[in-house]
């Protein structure tokens, strides 16, 4: 059993802190936001993440998980301090390090005995060393020792607990072998692979992994754009490519580009890091530009389907950047909906969970509805932006009755073209031939084992 304090009770701090408690440690999650802490103490969860509420409640009850805004006291009471505060995008695309540095100062001021300081936030190379320096400058007793470890987080929103409990690997970079060993042992109940390296490489692995995944997405979106023009089907192309184990089938889903709290900011941050280091990372810059442009693919398809958007009413289904989260950070809907309005359309929109979060950001651009039925009534077209299960499983016959004409633009390729042809839709998806009522469709692709 380790005594752990997690500083920052946002997405990562709360999920990882709860998971550390669940495997038998005593964990104090703290935050500068007193309202967040007050909510958490009552078992109320400030974010939408499947299974998190139950796990928090279980560990509060078991007296393994605690919440406080007395950060100094929490640090003094623990032996391992995780830093899990935000590193948002700064003005020039760089990671804004002010919160990490502030926490390092607080840790220095409360370093009452040996501690291991572990950085979980996504940070530029050199941050571990900077944290070490800040703690040294702020500690009251220069004989009190400490180590700094980089242990980046790889969870995904929407499947965060599953990702944490069954992590594919834990990356650990440390200033001492003993500290690395102790953090590796902390991960033993997760039965995961440990990859130990130096501080700098551990910090870089996180950016490299996110940038590579973002590259895969922009690449397949580029292939999708070619597929449409030459009569190929990107879902078949991804499936066929993915059968090669050197490529792998994951993160090859074409659509409206990546969003969320991390890929957009981390690709910018890595591009900035490269530039500062004297390397013009053109490939990564193109990934970012391609992603920005991909948003507008669905707007163009709506124009293709409807002629002009002037005076048209569009029913948008899904607002969050992906299903199973209410996170609206860099969600494609934030760009697409205002563009529809700029082009003269009026927008009605529905999201099963992110309604409030979306309203906080772009309320002036659309009318918000509580169901798919209300949203689509009398619309000229339906536009899918997030593949929530409610949306993928909706009754298409009913959708057709609600719309003025059976026009659907699908930014997430939720349905097969065959199904939409059978249902009688004019269906425009990403990287696949458009379906128009009465058109003939080829047999779906399949893998045969001989
Ligand atoms: N959200 C995600 O899915 C993932 C995020 N990450 C990385 O983890 C880090 C944290 O991300 P999120 O949890 O999404 O951020 P978040 O914005 O949800 O939470 C950050 C929390 O830190 C608190 N905070 C700020 N300054 C503080 C201070 N001085 N003392 C105590 N608390 C303080 C804030 O009040 C906030 O509650 C970022 O570097 C992010 O890139 C890594 C993997 C996944
Ligand atoms: O550093 C982070 O914060 C996290 O960023 C991503 O996780 P997350 O942003 O929660 O979500 P993903 O499932 O990776 O999806 C990101 C975006 O890419 C899009 N995407 C994903 C996969 C795909 O094939 N195609 C595609 O367009 C999604 O719709 C979404 O907008 C990474 O997957 C995590 O490993 C990482 O820890």
From TrEMBL:
UniProt binding sites for substrate: 154-157, 206, 251-255, 259, 322
Keywords carried by this UniProt record: NAD, Oxidoreductase
EC class name: oxidoreductase
Single GO BP term: polysaccharide biosynthetic process
Coiled-coil stretches: none
Domain UDP-glucose/GDP-mannose dehydrogenase C-terminal: residue ranges: 315-417
InterPro entries, sorted: 6-PGluconate_DH-like_C_sf (IPR008927), NAD(P)-bd_dom_sf (IPR036291), UDP-Glc/GDP-Man (IPR017476), UDP-Glc/GDP-Man_DH_C (IPR014027), UDP-Glc/GDP-Man_DH_C_sf (IPR036220), UDP-Glc/GDP-Man_DH_dimer (IPR014026), UDP-Glc/GDP-Man_DH_N (IPR001732), UDPglc_DH_bac (IPR028357)
GO terms, molecular function: NAD binding; UDP-glucose 6-dehydrogenase activity
Annotated metabolic or biological route of this protein: Nucleotide-sugar biosynthesis; UDP-alpha-D-glucuronate biosynthesis; UDP-alpha-D-glucuronate from UDP-alpha-D-glucose: step 1/1
Keyword Oxidoreductase on entry: yes
Active site annotation, chain numbering: 262 (nucleophile)
Family under the similarity heading: Belongs to the UDP-glucose/GDP-mannose dehydrogenase family.
Name of the protein described by the UniProt record: UDP-glucose 6-dehydrogenase
Natural source organism: Paenibacillus lutrae
Classification lineage: Bacteria, Bacillati, Bacillota, Bacilli, Bacillales
């Amino acid at each position: 059993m380790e005594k752990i304090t997690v500083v920052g009770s946002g997405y990562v701090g709360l999920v990882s802190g709860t998971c550390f408690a669940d495997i038998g440690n005593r964990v104090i999650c703290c935050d500068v936001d007193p309202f967040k802490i007050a909510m958490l103490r009552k078992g109320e969860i400030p974010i939408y993440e499947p299974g998190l509420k139950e796990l928090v409640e279980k560990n509060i009850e078991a007296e393994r998980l605690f919440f406080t805004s007395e950060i100094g006291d929490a640090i003094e009471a623990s032996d391992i301090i995780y830093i899990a505060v935000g590193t948002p995008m700064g003005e020039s695309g760089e990671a804004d390090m002010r919160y990490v540095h502030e926490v390092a100062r607080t840790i220095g001021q409360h370093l009452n005995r040996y501690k291991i300081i572990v950085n979980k936030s996504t940070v530029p190379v050199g941050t571990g060393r900077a944290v070490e320096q800040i703690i040294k400058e702020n500690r009251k007793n220069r004989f009190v020792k400490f180590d700094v470890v980089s242990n980046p987080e790889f969870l995904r929103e929407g499947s965060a607990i599953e990702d944490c409990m069954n992590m594919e690997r834990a990356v650990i970079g440390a200033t001492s072998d003993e500290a690395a060993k102790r953090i590796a042992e902390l991960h033993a109940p997760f039965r995961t692979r440990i990859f130990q390296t130096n501080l700098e490489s551990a910090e870089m692995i996180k950016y490299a992994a996110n940038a590579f995944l973002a590259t895969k997405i922009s690449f397949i979106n580029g292939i999708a754009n070619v597929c449409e023009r030459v009569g190929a089907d990107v879902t078949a192309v991804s499936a066929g490519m993915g059968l090669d184990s050197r490529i792998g089938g994951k993160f090859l889903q074409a659509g409206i580009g990546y969003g969320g709290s991390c890929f957009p900011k981390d690709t910018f941050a890595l591009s900035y890091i490269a530039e500062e280091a004297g390397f013009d990372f053109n490939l990564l810059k193109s990934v970012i530009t391609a992603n920005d442009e991909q948003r507008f693919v669905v707007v163009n398809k709506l124009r293709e389907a409807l002629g002009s958007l002037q005076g048209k009413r569009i029913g948008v289904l899904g607002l969050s950047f992906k299903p199973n989260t209410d996170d609206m950070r860099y969600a494609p809907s934030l760009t697409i909906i205002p563009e529809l309005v700029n082009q003269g359309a009026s927008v009605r929109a529905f999201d099963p969970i992110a309604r409030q979060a979306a309203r906080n950001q772009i309320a002036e651009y659309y009318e918000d509805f509580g169901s798919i039925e209300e949203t689509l009534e009398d619309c000229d077209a339906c536009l899918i932006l997030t593949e929530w299960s409610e949306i993928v499983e909706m009754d298409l016959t009913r959708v057709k009755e609600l719309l003025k004409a059976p026009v659907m633009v699908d930014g997430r390729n939720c349905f097969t073209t065959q199904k939409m042809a059978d249902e009688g839709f004019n269906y425009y998806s990403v990287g696949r031939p458009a379906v128009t009522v009465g058109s003939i469709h080829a047999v779906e692709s399949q893998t045969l084992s001989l």
